[in-house]
Amino acid sequence: MSLTKQLLDLFRVDKQLRGLRHRLEAAERFLSQQQTQLADLERTRTDLTGQSRQLRAGAANDEGEAQRLETRMVAIREQMNQTKTAKEYQALVTEINTFKAQKAECEERALEAMSRVEQSDSRMKEIEGQFEERTRMVAKALQDRDQRSSEIQDRVTELSAQRLELAKAIPASNLNEFELLVKARGDDAMAHIEMIDRRAHEGSCSACMMAIPVESLSALMTGKLTRCPSCRCYLFIEESIMNQPEEPRKRKPSKKKAAKEEVAKT
């Protein structure tokens, strides 16, 4: 078996493995995306819960302070009824007006805080709905990932063992060069020849569509490891083309025979 055939067999096994792993990787990427979005929703929910708790506590403090000021103003009004001098009465009026202003500020802050609590609760309701939906999507994505992993596990194991055996028969230098090329080019690491005229040794690389020199094509047909001069991928010829017999050359009639045929026509 030629080195080209050995690399081609390895390449085809690798291609199958990549296809199977890409399916699993796609499922894992989708699962990761859903988990990330779920984590974002969880952080938002936690932040909203903390904000709502702080706002409620602030509103309760302001309401308590407003109530304390109201109690103080009631006591001052009772004192005002018992004052004996205008100066003392005016001092109590000034004090009660100060408390009124402070109470109004407390009540305004409490109302603003409760308004923000309502907004936070409304947003929390939306987040809860999104969180439940995303939780279901994560569970479904996890199930799909596990199912896909289970489906391909036996085939991946089989192909991995097959690849190991194929790789053992390939010289280390060629194997390293091949693996580096596959890493860089993936499925374009090897390409078949698009045969234009086999008898004339005319063909092109199916990867880059550039014409292959006659010398390179001849070397490839004799089993020599050959790379495309343009894109540097490894080249191979499909077995169906290699096994196809060449069309026989059509012999041109001799001048004497052509003359006789011409006379016969006349």
Tags for this model:
single chain, 266 residues, alpha+beta, Helix Hairpins, 2 domains, 4-stranded mixed β-sheet, 74% helix, rod-shaped
Written account of the structure:
With 266 residues, this protein is an alpha+beta fold. It folds into two domains: 165 residues, Helix Hairpins, CATH 1.10.287.1490; 68 residues, no CATH class. Helix content is 74%, strand content 6%. The protein contains six helices and four strands. The chain has a four-stranded mixed beta sheet. Helix 1 packs antiparallel against helix 2.
First and last CA, distance: 59 Å
Q: How many alpha or pi helices?
A: 6
Q: What CATH architecture of the largest domain would you give?
A: Orthogonal Bundle
Average pLDDT taken over every residue: 89
Please, how many domains?
2
| Tally of strands | 4
**Strand coverage percent:** 5-15%
The gist of it:
With 266 residues, the protein is of the alpha+beta class. It has helices at 3-80, 86-168, 172-185, 214-221, 239-242, 255-265; strands at residues 190-197, 202-205, 211-212, 234-236.
SSE layout and pairings?
Elements (H helix, E strand, L loop, with lengths): L2 H78 L5 H83 L3 H14 L4 E8 L4 E4 L5 E2 L1 H8 L12 E3 L2 H4 L12 H11 L1
Parallel strand pairs: 1-4
Antiparallel strand pairs: 1-2, 2-3
Helix pairs in contact: 1-2
